[in-house]
Amino acid sequence: MSSGRDGTVRVWQVRDDLSVSQMCEVQPGSYTFCRPSACLGHLPEQTSSSPEEACQQPQRTADDDDMQRQGVTDMQQAGSSVPRRAAAASGWYVACIAQDASVIDVWDMRGCQSRVASLAVAATGRARGMCMAVQARPIACHGAAEHALEIISGYEDGSIAYWDTRWPAQPLACIHAHTEPVMCLAMSPGGGQAVSGAADDQLCWWKLQSSPPSPGQAVAMVHHHAATSAQQADVEGCQQLEEVQGQAAQRTMKRSKQMTINSSGLADVAYRPDGRLLASAGWDGKVRLFSTKRKEPLAVLRYHTGQATSVCFAPSINAKGLLASASRDHTVALWHMYA
After folding, report:
1. Which residues contact 296 (CB under 8 A, 6 or more apart)?
2. Are 330 and 288 within 8 A, CB to CB?
3. Are 39 and 67 in contact (CB under 8 A)?
4. Contact status, residue 39 vs residue 51, Cβ threshold 8 Å
């Protein structure tokens, strides 16, 4: 997946021979530095008999034309099929920043792309600034006829919100975690844990538990949604919502550890596919490794002469020893991990 300065998010297919073709794209209308997040989501059982049919663009209607005028771009057929497991059993979801930089839009990338959720942190009753980082992963949803994703998002004021797209009216939890803007987030491959880095010198470890809202929280969500749509939200209602949200924060999101990094500023964090290692890219050009079990530093990798901007482990568990790091010094380093 890629996002450019033209405000377009594109999803690509990379074949075994390393040839690349575009699968689809959306134009959310945002021009920020926040990277979008893509994942395979659990969907209702598909009726299509083949991957090609599942990704066929439907006959255009007047509603489709209206949707395109709102910024959704048609599927660009590249003459090749989408991976079978993506089309037949799951669907592509992309979480990215909306035209309002504090809002996250979730897009279903199948066929004629559609927006399935908008997550507005303003529902917490206070302004938190732009969304600076977002990560999404699927939630097991047996027999459900709806999308089910858990999303964490970091904001300009140092807050982190935890969302379940089945209840998008407000986050399950929202905690002020850092003293500076959140710059990067990562969720563990198996779920249940997350890590956040920011422009400060703190690395925070989080324990996540996605569960349905309590009856009181669900009522608050409904009331808030109705008030917002009618533009009738008042100060008392916002204060009540903050109280409910505070209870949810204790129930669904808890800081398990916080550690100080020797130099301020983390640009990226990434879990290894087996979940045992975490890597971070620092503004000081150093790549740091951490044990996710003990939540302790293991090593500091020094190569880059400029700010390290990105880290990424090889996606295959069979190649779990490979780590790539990129930097503003115009280099990409490939590391072999033995841990």
Report:
1. 290
2. no
3. no
4. no
Is residue 137 within 8 A of residue 147, CB to CB? The reply is no
Q: If pLDDT is split at 50, 70 and 90, which confidence band does 236 have?
A: very low
Is pLDDT larger for residue 127 or for residue 196? 196
Question: Can you read off the two tokens belonging to residue 158?
Answer: 């140092």
- Cβ proximity of 258 and 306 under 8 Å: no
Q: What percentage of the chain reaches a pLDDT higher than 70? A: 68
Reading the block at residue 280, the tokens are 């971070």
Q: Pull the structure tokens for residue 156.
A: 């300009």
- Residues 87-106: b if buried by 16+ CB within 10 A, e if exposed: bbebbbbbbbbbeebbbbbb
Quote the DSSP letter at residue 307: -
Q: Which amino acid is at 147?
A: H
Give me the residues paired with residue 289 across strands: 279, 299
Residues contacting 174, CB < 8 A, separation 6+? 121, 124, 128, 159, 160, 161, 162, 245, 249
Residue given tokens 């349905």 in the structure block: 212
Give the model confidence (pLDDT) of 92-131 as tens digits: 889 999 989 999 999 988 766 788 889 998 766 778 999 9
**pLDDT at 211 (0 to 100):** 58
Position 102, amino acid? S
- 264 near 181, Cβ under 8 Å? no
What is 194-235 written as a DSSP string? EEEEESSSEEEEEEE---PPPHHHHHHHHHHHHHHHTT---H
Question: Are the C-beta atoms of 136 and 148 separated by less than 8 Å?
Answer: no
Residue 308 structure tokens: 């390290």
Percentage of residues of the chain with pLDDT beyond 90: 40
- DSSP 3-state of 157: coil
- What CA–CA distances, in Å, run from 204 to 98, 199, 253? 26, 12, 12
Place of tokens 């935890």: 162
